[in-house]
Design brief:
By secondary structure, this protein is mainly β. It has one helix and ten strands.
Length: 99
């Protein structure tokens, strides 16, 4: 019984960032990051773009992602994306269609 409780607790405590993010594009197709801990966001054109880490959209609608797998990203109050390990522009080539 305790083994099951420990298993359930460990599953619940695992952060969501270890799973790839998926988003729906402007025509209803789901796209996910190819990287198992990567991010996905919809850009200013309604296209899903992905990266190695978490992705965020800046004030101009350009999406940037952390260069580190599973790395975090945030948008400053000036609309600038800041990322753990630095940022790189997200790409459609880093995405794959959800199944």
């Amino acid at each position: 019984m305790i083994k099951y409780l420990v298993l359930i607790m460990s599953i619940l405590l695992i952060p969501n960032s270890i799973y790839a993010t998926c988003k729906e594009n402007s025509i209803g197709i789901i796209q996910c990051s190819k990287d198992p801990s990567g991010g996905a966001e919809v850009n200013q054109f309604g296209t899903v773009v992905c990266g190695k880490g978490e992705c965020k959209q800046n004030s101009l609608g350009i999406v940037y992602c952390s260069t580190i797998q599973g790395g975090g990203a945030a948008v400053s109050n000036l609309g600038i994306v800041k990322c753990l390990g630095g940022c790189e522009q997200a790409s459609q080539f880093m995405c794959e269609q959800g199944r």
